[in-house]
């Protein structure tokens, strides 16, 4: 079943009138007809199953069938922060990270980041990533489309750490030393709904001064198993661990 995110809060109606991009995709691309069921997700994250009633040249009209009952979101609100990697790796991180349940993504210029984007390029990249996140959220049947934030100032990023309930830094030196407990300890101790920030360096990793900056802002260092993971793989490992510890073990 196709899923669409609408830029409006839910309000009980006899008929929902949908235009713009969702209308275009339903009617022009998918060529849906009256009776076809779709998922509609509203700004307040409420999701319903709706059935197409009719359509004109610019609007499709749908009626609610039922509210969606299953919660599709991780019990913890995980934000993935990545030092800017090379090429299109950030696209992959956002796409697959969204499918795995990340609530938000932050990109920041780490000291070893090779990529340098000016404000114009950052804005264009952010728009592209937001679209990737929404499409991945629709595909994976989520109730939110993760927010994307791309920063041009690393200092602003490090100063933002206090807004999270827990901050974890994936650090390869911790993995090399065999540290494996911190990730489990932190995740299992957090109550449902907690905000978690997971920080990953670019290909060159995080520098000692960045690690020191993170620790000064109450971040904890953690290993991600005995293997050294690529910058685009590590976030997927992290999100999978969170899913196992907070979802699968409670089912």
Give a concise summary.
By secondary structure, the protein is of the alpha/beta class. Helix 2 runs parallel beside helix 3. The protein contains eight helices and eleven strands.
Which helices and strands appear, and what pairs or packs with what?
Layout: E1 3-5, E2 16-18, H1 20-29, E3 37-41, E4 47-55, E5 60-67, E6 77-83, H2 89-99, E7 104-108, H3 119-139, E8 147-150, H4 154-159, E9 166-170, H5 172-176, H6 182-189, E10 195-200, H7 208-216, E11 220-222, H8 234-246
Parallel strand pairs: 1-3, 6-7, 6-10, 7-8, 9-10, 9-11
Antiparallel strand pairs: 2-5, 3-4, 4-5
Helix pairs in contact: 2-3
Give an overview in words:
The protein is an alpha/beta fold. The protein folds into two domains: 65 residues, Beta Barrel (Ribosomal Protein L25, Chain P), CATH 2.40.240.20; 174 residues, Alpha/beta knot, CATH 3.40.1280. It is 33% helix and 23% strand. The strands form two sheets. A six-stranded parallel beta sheet has the order 8-7-6-10-9-11, with helices on both faces. A five-stranded mixed beta sheet has the order 1-3-4-5-2. Helix 2 runs parallel beside helix 3. The chain is elongated, with a radius of gyration of 20 Å.
Shape: elongated
Q: Could you name the CATH class of the largest domain?
A: Alpha Beta
Number of helical elements: 8
CATH architecture of the largest domain: 3-Layer(aba) Sandwich
The value of Rg in angstroms is 20 Å
Strand content bin: 15-25%
Keywords:
single chain; 251 residues; alpha/beta; Ribosomal Protein L25, Chain P; Alpha/beta knot; 2 domains; six-stranded parallel sheet; five-stranded mixed sheet; 8 helices; 11 strands; elongated
């Amino acid at each position: 079943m196709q899923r669409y995110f609408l830029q409006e809060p839910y309000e009980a109606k006899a008929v929902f009138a949908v235009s713009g991009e969702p209308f275009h995709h339903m009617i022009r691309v998918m060529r849906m007809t009256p009776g076809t069921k779709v998922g509609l997700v509203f700004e307040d994250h409420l999701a319903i199953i709706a059935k197409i009633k009719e359509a004109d040249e610019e609007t499709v009209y749908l009626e609610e069938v039922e509210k969606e009952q299953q919660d599709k979101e991780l019990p913890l609100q995980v934000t993935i922060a990545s030092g800017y990697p090379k090429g299109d790796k950030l696209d992959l991180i956002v796409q697959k990270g969204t499918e795995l349940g990340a609530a938000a993504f932050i990109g920041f210029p780490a000291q070893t980041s090779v990529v340098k984007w000016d404000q114009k390029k950052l804005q264009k990249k952010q728009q592209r990533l937001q679209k990737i996140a929404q499409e991945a959220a629709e595909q994976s049947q989520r109730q939110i489309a993760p927010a994307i934030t791309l920063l041009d100032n690393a200092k602003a990023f490090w100063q933002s750490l206090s807004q999270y309930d827990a901050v974890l830094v994936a650090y390869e030196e911790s993995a090399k030393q065999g540290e494996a407990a911190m990730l489990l300890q932190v995740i299992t101790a957090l109550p449902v709904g907690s905000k978690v920030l997971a920080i990953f360096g670019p290909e060159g990793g995080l520098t000692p001064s960045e690690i020191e900056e993170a620790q000064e802002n109450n971040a904890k260092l953690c290993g991600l198993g005995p293997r050294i993971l690529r910058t685009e793989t590590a976030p997927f490992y992290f999100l999978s661990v969170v899913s196992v510890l907070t979802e699968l073990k409670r089912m």
